[in-house]
Amino acid sequence: MDIQRTGQAKKRRNRRLMIGGAAVVAVALISIFLSGLKPAAPSVQRETVWIDTVQRGDMDRNVRGAGTLVALDVRFVAAPVEGRIERIPALPGVTVKADTILMDMSNTELQQSSAEAESQLRAAEADYTDLQAKLSSEILNEQSAAAAAESQSAQAKLQAEADAQLNAQGLVPKITAQLSHLKSDILEKQAGIEKQKVVKGQNSVDAQLAAQRARVAQSRSNYELKRSQLESLQVRAGIDGVLQELPVQVGQRVTQGTTLARVARPERLKAELKIPETQAKDVKVNQKASIDTRNGIVQGHVIRVAPSVQDGTVIVDAALDGPLPEGARVDLSVDGTIDIEHLVNVLHVGRPAYGQPQSTVEMFKLVEGGKAAERVKVKLGRSSTNTIEVVSGLAPGDQVILSDTSAWDGHDRIRLN
After folding, report:
1. Same domain for 52 and 83?
2. What is the pTM of this model?
3. Do 240 and 101 belong together in one domain?
4. 204: alpha, beta or left? (left if phi > 0; alpha if psi -120 to 50)
5. Domain termination residue (choose one: 231, 254, 284)
6. What percent of the chain shows pLDDT beyond 90?
7. What's the CA gap between 111 and 121, in Å, rounded?
8. Best-predicted range by mean pLDDT among 6-10, 81-85, 329-333?
9. Does 363 share its domain with 221?
10. What is the total count of domains within the chain?
11. How far apart are CA 209 and CA 130, in angstroms?
12. Is the pLDDT score of 1 beyond 80?
């Protein structure tokens, strides 16, 4: 007969519950322990980061920008009139004089109007000559009439004086003497009138000739304008220099004002630099500049700072004070460095990839003899192209990582291998 075992199933169930509870408690304890641990410091190859040493001493502040050489004397040659380009004897790159013909143009309408203007001028000049002859003849007639009247007046005056004397002697009647005197007065007045007619006639002649001369001058001015426009169809350089650009072709028809060519003086150049807007605030006129032409460095100075920003940069013009090196020419790519100021006895380090002037950043400072680096807060001051001032957070001799450290944002410490 089998004996029934009571309580064994219950014991096994309780044992399983105890083992499961112990496992849950162990997992919880392990989780709590692991959550309290700090993440392991990442390992970084020393050769892959940029390390620099903090120094105390003098620091030159400067800014740098790329640019091109630009001619100081540039002449843009525009089409003087509408026309068609017939011939282009000069090509870009050639040296030209002020009177060098760059191209020949044609305009049939202008040629016709110039011929008409010349014809009108010749007609106006002929009319002036004819009018001058006619008016001269009229003046001569009036002068002749005035002379005759003056002669008759003089004769009548002599006759009146003679009759007056004869009358006094009783040789002629008194009436005869009176009539002679009256005739003399009348002829004298007529002579005065004729003289006035001569004066007024001369004034009229002068006015008519002046009006005709004005018409001649107007016709001559119109003709000279047309002739000047006709001559301008031979487009000339205008200044001595080098032909830089010729953006037109033979057979092309252009309107008045179209740019036909660009001529520049190659011996007078300036550097047009593009300085980042964040660095351009300290650039001022007359500051020293060094222009690297890839074939030599030319010293210069700032002559203009553009008042506006274009595409994140500020245009700065620098005059070239020294002789130009071989190969310097218009549109040559150059690099320019502008000296801002000289700082004496300041703490400085190489400019980090992520730090801005006058800001506080976190940098990794080397510890344990360079085997590791820890994150520290550093206050930065004035900056230069390659260096920046350290206001606080570092000491002379400290070594810091200047490379981009955004990959280690979640770590306060890294190991250097």
Report:
1. no
2. 0.58
3. yes
4. alpha
5. 231
6. 45
7. 15
8. 81-85
9. no
10. 3
11. 10
12. no
**Residue 401 belongs to some domain of the structure:** yes
40 has a pLDDT exceeding 70: no
Let me know whether 66 and 77 are in one domain. Answer: no
Clarify whether residues 165 and 94 are in a common domain: no
Contact (Cβ atoms closer than 8 angstroms) between residue 258 and residue 85:
no
Answer whether residue 35 shows pLDDT above 60. no
Alpha helices in 349-398 (DSSP H): none
Which strands sit side by side in the sheet containing 234-236, from one edge to the other? 234-236, 101-106, 83-87, 253-254
pLDDT-derived band at 8 (thresholds 50, 70, 90) equals low
pLDDT greater than 80 at residue 22: no
Contacts (Cβ under 8 Å, ≥6 apart) of 375 = 362, 363, 364, 365, 411, 412, 413
- 3-state helix vs strand vs coil in the chain, percent to 5: 40, 35, 30
Of the candidates 298, 310, 324, which has an alpha carbon nearest to the alpha carbon of residue 274?
Answer: 310
DSSP output for 105-165? EE-HHHHHHHHHHHHHHHHHHHHHHHHHHHHHHHHHHHHHHHHHHHHHHHHHHHHHHHHHH
Average pLDDT, the chain: 86
For residue 7, being part of any structural domain is answered with: no
> With contact defined as beta carbons under 8 Å apart, do 301 and 342 qualify?
no
Q: What is the pLDDT of residues 183-222, one digit of tens each?
A: 878 888 887 888 888 888 788 888 888 888 899 999 999 9
Whether residue 101 is found in the same domain as residue 245:
yes
pLDDT of residue 288: 95
Residue predicted with more confidence, 65 or 157: 65
Instruction: Check: CB of residue 382 under 8 Å from CB of residue 61.
Output: yes
- SS3 call for 390: strand
Q: Are residues 255 and 293 in the same domain?
A: no
- Residue 184 is part of which domain span? 108-231
State the Cα–Cα distance between residues 230 and 227, nearest whole angstrom: 5
Same domain, yes or no: 94 and 165 = no
With both helix axes pointing from N to C terminus, report the angle between 108-169 and 174-231 in degrees, rounded to the nearest 10. Answer: 170
